[in-house]
Amino acid sequence: MNSARFFVALLLLALAGCASDPAPHEQLRLTEQALGQARAVGAGEDQGELTLAQGKFEQAGAALTAGRHREARMLAEQAELDARLAEEQVLTQKGRKQVAELKRQIGALRQQLGEL
Amino acid sequence: MKGWPVFSFGLLCLASLGGCATSSPETLRALDEARAELLAIRTEPAVRLSAEKDLARAEESLARAERFSGYLGSEDDVLHYAYLSRRYGQIAREHGAQRQAAERLVELEKERDRLQLALSEARLLNAEQQGEWLEEQLLGRTTTETERGLVMTLGDVLFDTGREELRSAATRTVVQVARFLRLNQRRVVRIEGYTDSQGDDQLNLELSRGRAQSVKDMLVDLGVDAGRVQVAGYGEAYPVAENASSQGRARNRRVEIVFSDEEGRLGAER
Questions:
Q1: Which residues of chain A have pLDDT under 50?
Q2: Residue range(s) occupied by CATH 3.30.1330.60 in chain B
Q3: What is the ipTM of this complex?
C-alpha cells in the first residue's frame, strides 16, 4: 500500500514537472543573438527563414510572459536555428556571387587577350 | 487484494507512457524527413569536411526525436526535435556549399592572376612593336637632328594667338610624345618656347615659357615624371625664319621638344 501510494505520488510529480519547466531566458537570449547576427550579415525580411525566426521569437516571448515555458523554449530553439540558417544562406549567396564575379573578370580578360 | 486497483492503475499509466507504436502519421513523416535529410547530406564530402559539428547535432536531435517517439503524448517533442535535426542538416549543407565556393574562389583567383600576367606581357610586346613605330614616326618625320640633339617642332597652329593653352589638335602629338617617353624611360626632354618678334620682349619671353609649360603640364598629366621634363622660354630669340613676312612669323612661333639620347644625355640650354 505504501509503495503504491509512493508510486502514484511519483507519477503526479512527474506530470507536474512538465508544467514547471524553467523559464528559458537563456534560450531567448541566444535566439535574439542569432537573429542579430543574421541581420548583421545582410539577411533581410524577404528571406523566409528570417521572417519565420522573427515570428517564432515573438511568439516565444509571449509564451514566456504567459508562463508557458515549455512552449517558449521550443519556439525559441526553432527560431534560433531558423535565424542561423538564414545567416548561412546569405553567406553561401555571397560566396557564389564572388565566384560569379571572378568568372566574369576571367571572361573579360580572355576576351582582351583574344583581341590582342 | 487491497492493492489490486492501485496496481492496475499503475499498469495503465505505464502502458500509456509506453504507447510508442501508436505515433501519429504526422510524427512518422517528420521523422522520415529528418532521416532522409541526414542521409542525403552525409553523402556530400564538402559537408562532412566543413560542418562536422552541425552534422553531429543533426544526428543528436534525430536520436532524441526517435526516443520521444517511444512515448505517448510526446508528439510535440518528436516534431520539435525532428525539426531541429532538419535545420541542423540544412545549416550543415550551407557550410558545405560555402566551402565549395571558397575552394573555387582560390582556383579562380589563381586563374585570373595568370591571365592578368599574360595580358600585361602581351600588351608589353605590343607596346614594344608600337614603340618602334612611334620612334620612327616621332624621330624620323617630324624631327630634325641638330647640334642640340633630336628636336621636334610643334607648330604655331597648336596655340591660339597670345594664348598659352594647347589647342586640342596639339593633344594628339603630345600624347604620342608621352607614350614615347613611357616606352623610353631613360630619355628626358626639354621643352622650349619661341615667339615671333612682334610685341613686347618681356611678354614674349613669358608667353614662350608659358606655352612650353603647358606642354610639360600635359605630359605630366599623361603620366610622364615631371623630373624628366625641363622647360625653357626664349621669346623672340633664335628665329627659324624672317619676321618680315606673316609666314615667317608663323614659323617662328613654335614649341620645340628637344629629346635626349637613349642614355638620358640632353644637350645644354641655349
A1: 1, 17-18
A2: 142-259
A3: 0.82
